[in-house]
């Protein structure tokens, strides 16, 4: 990774690079270890489905509102985008060390989600409402940008065009709008010393139905620790009854992203 802009090379001089392989985005992510501070660098091709500039904008808007990284550098050249951010101290919530006290982990995940959803959406410039998401899903289907090999197990073998028809047919009639993370999966929640220390990978954040986050949180908890912990998570979040149709819908929606 020597072929980075000179301005970025100067900023990262003296840091050791370690590639992070967790996650499914188009970007390459590196942990840059320094003598005093660590940073994270994302490098992503310009022709990727999503772009790092949008994540940069959202991180900057969230400064002082939520515990998120700080943008240290953003630029692009003829081939790639580059986004350098500060490290959020702690360990991501998918780490197996949390098996020792999963009930505490569920409390923290619920608290983190409530913190996000309580953020005021007044003047929030990032629209992730259903009409916007469905239109983007349509664009990706028409341009062959949906990875059918990465569908959830229950949809393996199906075609994106058929799933899009299902998306249109089952569109919810209402939205409970809050500020959402957009990808509230356990690797994106950082915990330190028994508290949620911050949120990362915010490229899909914005105003959306709270079920956007609930659906992906439930899927991620089930995948990492087991579905038996979902009721405890929901109780801590404050939901006694869940709209299962919305959970299924927003998990379906995620197949396009």
Automatic annotation (TrEMBL):
Superkingdom of source = Bacteria
Which keywords annotate this record? Answer: Antibiotic resistance, ATP-binding, Kinase, Nucleotide-binding, Transferase
Is Ubl conjugation a UniProt keyword of this protein? no
InterPro entries, per the entry = AGP_Transferase, Aminoglycoside_PTrfase, Kan/Strep_kinase, Kinase-like_dom_sf
Aminoglycoside phosphotransferase domain mapped to chain residues: 17-241
Keyword Membrane found: no
Family under the similarity heading: Belongs to the aminoglycoside phosphotransferase family.
| PANTHER family, sorted | 3'-PHOSPHOTRANSFERASE, PUTATIVE-RELATED, AMINOGLYCOSIDE PHOSPHOTRANSFERASE-RELATED-RELATED
Protein name (Swiss-Prot/TrEMBL): APH(3') family aminoglycoside O-phosphotransferase
Q: What is the lineage of its organism?
A: Bacteria, Bacillati, Bacillota, Bacilli, Bacillales
